[in-house]
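Lab manual, section 2.4: Encoding a predicted structure.

Procedure: take the sequence of the chain (227 residues), apply the prediction step described in section 2.3, and record the output as structure tokens. A sample record is shown.
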Amino acid sequence: HHSDRIHVTLTFAQSIDAKIAAKYSRQLILSGIDSLRMTHWIRTRHDAILVGIGTALNDDPQLNVRHLPPADPPHHLPRPIILDSHLRFSLSSKLLANYNAGTGRRPWILSIHSDDPQWLARKDALEHAGVKVISVHTSDSLLPLPPLLQTLHSLGIRSLMVEGGARIIASFFSSPDLLDNIIITVAPTIVGDDGLGYALPISLPTNFTHTHSQIFGPDTVVAWSKI
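Recorded output:
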């Protein structure tokens, strides 16, 4: 892949009926331990992991590789990055606790620059707690993906694992030229109307090809790559 752009892997778990989260901000656990370990192994192959603020607040994820057996030398730990336009990130998150305990990397937050005193006060509080806040100047109310990726590239990120939630998954699916790999874990669960799905393009671009399907415990992992 070209060194002037970030290599992006989109990966998430879904139910048979293509639900990726529960309504009303409840966490939905879909992956079994085997496919989770596979996901954690893929994490070690990336510089950073990106999630949205909804996922960060709902699931309070650790975004580490704790399900892998210990290794010597230790597994590479990806940088946790949260897309958080209005700086709603919680000071009591596991990501911050792990960083301050020396067991996790410093979380980065990508936000939209604002001169609003409340935004600036939240930025100060987050930075004081250990977060690196990266503000992107844009007139949009949501962070557009190309400048977001350019900003991360300028900070040395060369490979990014995008893990959700629904809005970020939909954004990348609607800009598939930014993607290099898509890895979807399908769990043998039907969630029904209590679940949230994601928006999909009508079809993947013709330059994506199915490369792999594998069973991990009860789950099926399906991968596509850009040719």
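Check your result against the sample. The chain has a mean pLDDT of 89.
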